[in-house]
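Appendix C reproduces, verbatim, an entry submitted by the partner laboratory led by Prof. M.T., so that reviewers can inspect both the input and the predicted structure.
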Amino acid sequence: MRDAEVLPAALSLTPEFIRNSASESGAVVDYRDWQVPLGRRFRALKIRSVIHARGLEGLRAHIRGHIALAEQLEQWVAADPRFALAVPRSLALLCLRVVTGSSPEDDDAATKQVLERVNASGTAFLSHTVVNGRYVIRVAIGAVATGPEHVQALWERLQAEVA
């Protein structure tokens, strides 16, 4: 591309949970914008490839396993007064925030700090979003190799960063 800003600007769809300071500042090239968009035809091709590789039962087992991991994490979050669920869990997606016991602004700042420290540790990558005006951490469990040990390690890291 002669002008490297034209293609990403044309294809970019940037919801809150994908935004980050490095991409926003232009410090890095965000290659997710340099691809065929996720239109209907291409989503169908991707799901067909997964079904072909795993089969329907394999795909169902994979999804159910990750939903179970998210349910376990949801239970841990609900049992810890330092955390709160921002919204009810949706399949294998969990949105949580830190509870400081003071103001909503302090909770948001603490949540952002925890997210940044977890990501800086290199042990996990979490994204964020804003729900009802509140900054929250998104935990999306779905990578092929994610297992119970990874979710347990993430929970321990989250707890350690709040303490």
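The first strand starts at residue 83 and ends at 85. Additional entries are available on request from the coordinating office.
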